[in-house]
Amino acid sequence: MTNSKLLFSLLLAGSVGTVSAQSLKDARAAIEAENYGKAKTILQQLVTKQPKNGDNYFYLGQIYLVNDRADSAATIFNQGLAADPKATINNVGLGYVDLMKKDKASAESKFALATAKLGKKDYEPLLEIGRAYINAPEPDYAKALEYLTQAKEKNKKDVAIPIALGDAYRGLKEGSLAYTSYGDATDIDPNSVQAKVGQAVIVRGAQAFDEAITQLEAIAAETPTYAPTYRELAETYNQWSRLPGTSDEKYVELNKKGVEQYKKYLEVAGDNSLEAKIRYADFLVYARQYDDLKVVSEELAQNPSVDPKIYRYLGYIAFQKAKDYPKALEYLNQMFSKMEKDRVIPLDYMYLGMSEIAANSPKHAEGGADSTATAAPVLTAENTANIQKGIADIKKGIDLDKELLGETAELAFAKYQEQELQTAASLFELVASYTDNKTYLFDANYYAGEAYYQIGAKEDAASKNEEQVVVNQELRDKAIADLQKAQTFLTVIETTDNKEAQDKYLINALYYKAFAALTADNLEQPKGDFVASFQKLIETINQRGAQEKNKNYLIDANTYIGLYYYVKQDLPKAKESFPKSISHRPSERSC
């Protein structure tokens, strides 16, 4: 579970147990204000003063959950059960931990224990189970509604219940029902800022970000001391920045505003704890604000034993700011070795993979490389293995968060421009494998095809001597395989009905597809698979009236079509093509 998800959703809990009202009230008020450092201190004191009261442990365990410390929370909940077996709400806490670890079966068994002997008025475990299903890394909003509906039947006066129902309906994208539930909360407590914020967040869910910000700013102006409003503003700016089609300038602008709101949130909440700084760093990670993250990371690095997340921050900064890729890889490997698997986020796999690729990327051949050169950056066997491992790690990240496809595509294009063609081709191939994502699908297929063509062409050249006789059959076979891959990817462009993709790529795709087939062929006894692509290339150029712009393509196409028919002894067809090739050549001027 992401820390932000827990942080954004933790609500004021209903009264649990009968510990000192004032002390518990103070702890709950601190939780509502999201000053978890203060709440933790109060609850630790309560546990010390009243070690036999299991309810105190439940609240304390919740603070550890907010701070993304599931194992520590489990320890606290177990201590609560040992100290007070009747306080079965700690079983809810343990079930919540199971959900964080994606063990639903175990969670359900814990929840069954917690609800087995509820009295007529006992609703708190039902409320907390509902919240647990809402906040789980794999939310089950329908399941949450089951428990929250039962809680509402038992208690119609606790404002926390309709707020949680609103959260569940919002998760199900039932905006009208969510809005009504938050309205029910304001009927119970007209001063409930939490409910008003919930209604504004519904608007955000409809991607009406400017309207959501207007509403949240109005709430902040009306109740400036309610810290969570500023956090929601920060999250709104961040979500807006991730909207497809957002320009780089707009992305930076929105996230800077988000960071300012998060700073305001920390200021108003008054939480100066180390855990609060870690949560702030988490937000900076999601907002990709690496300058601010660098400042926080340097401070947190003074306490490297506090949380393995620190190695995440150091790794990201080493990659983004210092460009020290081996160091980034070192930090991230430390994080993976020390952090519980359920605390790893998709972006960690992305950065681990990018660091592995960057740390193993070869130097360019001296003098550079281009699309026509046979020289290429040198990859050792170890480099190749590590780069492929990096690509596999990036895939893990994408499988968990499809938004990372964009970053993968950017990395692929960067490697393509640097002429690290094998790495680029593998990354483009990875992006192209996610066929349901049309944003990057056709770009990835085109560049994968072009990259594999260049790889195959260079391998083919290297497999032959100066007389064009194959002297390395193994390399020639690999060339043919890569050239066939090129044709497969480029065919996607040729056959799609996506007009934008065809307008952008079709002519080049047909050209490289034809040359991939030509290079893979045996021109002494040609099969001629390249002819159809060259013919379609000529037709497409003529249909678009783009002859002048693509005259070199027309020269090549007619030349090789003519050559094919000449070798096949079909001289009439050969004579049709050769003059067309000549007609596109520049006129020679007499001296």
From TrEMBL:
Q: What is this protein called?
A: Tetratricopeptide (TPR) repeat protein
Q: Where are the TPR repeats?
A: 54-87, 555-588
- Alphabetically list the UniProt keywords: Signal, TPR repeat
Signal sequence, start to end: 1-21
**InterPro entries in the cross-refs:** TPR-like_helical_dom_sf, TPR_rpt
The source's superkingdom equals Bacteria
